[in-house]
Specification:
88 residues; mainly beta; six-stranded antiparallel beta sheet; 2 helices; 6 strands; 9% helix
């Protein structure tokens, strides 16, 4: 059972291609975008609040590296609806 947050989540391989996701994404590659490129350097990334095309919700995305033996092999991006983050 999926709770309201996260609104979306997906894993990309080292080339930025999505290999796993909660629901069908609006795009299939994040290669060349900070949400993938920074985790591939071992860093995390946080986007600005925006209206997401795939969910239709105002949300914020964060991403982190997926590691194998301490080396980035992909990225995990999770989007959270802003309304879910502000609930009591």
């Amino acid at each position: 059972k999926q709770s309201p947050a996260p609104a979306e989540a997906f894993v990309s391989d080292s080339q930025g291609r999505k290999v796993a996701f909660l629901s069908k994404p609006s795009g299939w590659s994040h290669l060349g975008k900070p949400k993938h490129d920074l985790p591939m350097k071992g860093e995390s990334w946080q986007g600005k609040p925006e209206l997401d095309k795939s969910t239709g919700a105002k949300q914020i995305q964060i991403s982190v590296p997926v590691l194998k033996d301490g080396v980035p092999v992909g990225s995990l991006v999770v989007g959270f609806r802003l309304t879910d983050l502000t609930k009591d």
